[in-house]
User: Fold this.
Amino acid sequence: SDKASKAVPGTSVHAVENLIDLLDEHRGVLLTSSYEFPGRYARWSLGFVDPPLEVSGTGQKCTIRALNSRGTVLLPAVIGAMNKLYDEGVLEDVTVTDVEQSGSGDASLESLPSRVDVKVVPPP
Assistant:
């Protein structure tokens, strides 16, 4: 969006325009609804940039990957949840990849998980 046409700082319009600009060069999302019905539905916007995790998948396979240090902090909890789903028979495979295995070369990050790949048990 055009920097000269920015809305008043501190307003939701300004925040959304800032987010749109950031999304040109950063990962993230902007969800917005302009539908309004008095007493029932209101307009809304929700968005963020630089998420900590990326979730992608196709078919029975899914990958959850840490995108930054915040994601590295969250990933052990995600791995724990995936291992629980494995124990319960929901997942047929859980594979954790450490930063070292993914080729970062940073020795201080050797033991930190960087991603978890899972495969869902197919429906009967």
Summary: DSSP finds two helices and six strands in the chain. Helices lie at 12-22, 69-87. The mean pLDDT is 86. Residues 16 and 45 are 8 Å apart (CA to CA).
